[in-house]
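Hi W.,

Here's what went into the run:
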Amino acid sequence: MLAEIINSNFNRYASGAEKDLFFETRKQAFEAFETMGFPTQKNEEWKYTNIKGVTAGSFEMSDERPAHAKTIFEKSVLNEIKANQLIFVNGIFYPDLSILLEKDKSIVLTNLANARTEYSELFNRHFSKYAKTEEHSLNALNTALLNDGAFIYVPEGVKPEYPVIINHYIDSTHINVLVQPRNLMVIDKGAEITLIETYESIGFNASYTNVVSEIYVAENAHLEHYKVQQQAGESYHTNFTQMFQESNTSINQVTLTLDGKLVRNNLHFYMNGKNCNSLLYGLYIIEKQNTVDNHTRVDHAQPNCFSDEKYKGILKDQSTAIFNGKIIVHLDAQKTNAYQRNQNVLLSDEAVVNTKPQLEIFADDVKCTHGATIGQLDEEPMFYLRSRGIPENEARKMLLNAFADEIAERIKIPELVELLEKKIEEKL
Amino acid sequence: MPEPESDIIDQVVSQDYKYGFSTNIEMEMASIGLSEETVRYISKKKNEPDWMLEWRLKAYKHWLKLDEPKWQNFEYPKINYQEIYFYAAPKEKIKLDSLDQVDPELLKTFEKLGISLLEQKRLTGVAVDAVFDSVSIATTFKDQLREKGVIFCSISEALKEHPELVKKYIGSVVPQTDNYFAALNSAVFSDGSFVYIPKGVRCPMELSTYFRINAEKTGQFERTLIIADEGSYVSYLEGCTAPMRDENQLHAAVVELVAHEKAEIKYSTVQNWYPGDKEGKGGIFNFVTKRGLCEGAFAKISWTQVETGSAITWKYPSCILKGDHSVGEFFSVAVTNNCQVADTGTKMIHLGKNTKSRIVSKGISAGKSHNTYRGLVKVNKKAIGARNHTQCDSMLIGDRSGAHTFPYIEIGNKSAQVEHEASTSKIGEDQIFYCNQRGIGTEAAIGLIVNGFCREVLNQLPMEFAVEAQKLLAVSLEGSVG
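Here's what came out:
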């Protein structure tokens, strides 16, 4: 049982040897997790997602440094992108494999454990300040047992030349592995950066990855953020990303879920200042008996902000997709414009979609819309293509590509688009 | 000069409830509070058969096991069920042949409400089963209906005259164990309407019941059961007004509809119970369970509701589309003002093949009120070719009001086609400006806009009711909304 494994791991931290300044934070979070426990389907937020596969499973935290990490990285498609690369295997940082191209040394690209001592002031100011542990037990779990993760700081007005890729490899070659990566990114005033978070699996045993990423975007800064999930096989992945925006900031976020037994994404935006601009796009392609659950929440806490959200899904076999988008317009957050859309194409009779686009509005001068559609591919364009001699399979592929294109065109890195296209090709 | 908007909003917010009055008629009441004894008392009082008492007791026992639901998007003071009178009937037992025999006090009440039976009889051709508190006291147009074989009477009467029908259908759509308030209703329901339309009959007139809550501290537990047999059609109207009251009153009704093959039921509601005062004190709690079952193929059930009253409106008229090719519809206007709360919507459960459903919901919130649309569209794995379109729009008047949408969409097969659209916006300033420009005052302009906003739903109401609905919309938002 996972609960026992968690207890014993926590006790390891508690038993002196690894006890450090950070222990108090761990302890509080652990206590919060103990009270809440793992989410069950009785919890409205987890109504459609059963994580029995995780809780009943047996996973181990691993300190082992796999020797083959290098070869894995070299094989990765994202390796081809000219970018700063931070490499983590099972939550452990590999500085020797990491690539730092930036000449401007004021940009901090390191791991969290290092940042805790070397950049303690920044770390203390931002760590665990945005992702709430009170309501989300898995956040608490991550905070209590976190391994390591990326720490990125972009100083005021700095615009790095290359994107930063945070590569998390989950290696379950020998054992069922439990990994809890934790990333913290601080984008200071007027800075601009492109970040890519990727999660890839190695090995055929089961794995449970529980990620928390906190991203603070200061005034006038701009962030391009991509999340790519391609953990195959028996991979369970829960992810909580909290964006915290000050005024006049803009964020373009794209989430691509391309594989995984069970993927649960929590993507939360909190607009703490005026004139924010947030774009959330997502694409999921699911097959077999896999489940993808996207929960997004946009908190319009200040006036004059804009958000646009679009999530699209293609479902094969006996797969299940869940979407819950929340737009919350707080009292006095006037002149808010918020849009949200979820579209699903079902390719199989056994696929299931549960969607819940949700609006909670407490201000009057707003324009908010949301929508959801679920269906098969349109018959008319299909007929058009077939009547011009294109075989059915080919036509379907074209139409699905067109469907996915709306999200793909939001991606500004050509290699990433290529990867996506390759994946679509493979799956369909 | 058009009035500044803030004045209009003030006016809206300060509108008083116009239909507040209380009639002094002697009441016969069950002792206060709820126990097995109360259930037995009610059943005995109504001379019910034993199976009915057993049925009630089963519901009561189940109710004891349940907790009040907590998932709703609002809070309400805890209801003390031991401080409610669960049964109240006018003391004079009246057997009616004509309206002359009705207590003149009652007739006056109806007249004040503008639903005078005399008037109705002469002009509208609507048969009215008037429920004054709990016991039906007058039924009109019975002869005409009897000719066609339509049964339209109170549940108590139906229990006496058509027990086999009641026994067969009661609880078949909303079982005693369905939810907290349905269980409560099943245990203590006092009266309500019963309609049975025989095979192939098109009901010659629109059937209507006016509910009134009258006695102090009387929880109102109505039970309505409508059965449309194969190929029949019926349109049923339900409307409510209630007098000024200081304490919260609970209303937990249950409505069950059964439509057999090729039958159609159209159920319309105009609800304008006492919403409480400006500070949100008092007002009715309207916690209702309404559900229709399209039992046979090609059956159709259509719900139309105009909700303007009640401190809290909490209901989800639903359709279970069991028969192949059956159709469910839901049209709703919910207006909230001051401190009112509405948490309403629908459930469309697609079970049969090629079933269709349509949802149109319009919410208007003003003052400090909150308006929530909560809906479920569920397409079962075997419901091949299911189709749904949902549209829910919200309009906000005043910066302290709230509008919320919680649509649940659960799709279990690929042939389903489901669309959901929702929008929320402030009342259009450019539209008001356009009207102002052409010499239409702001007040009238807002009226026009809101009327247009709701038209799609109001159009669904039968003629007789559309007038009433417009009047009630006017009362709720008068000063800014025509």
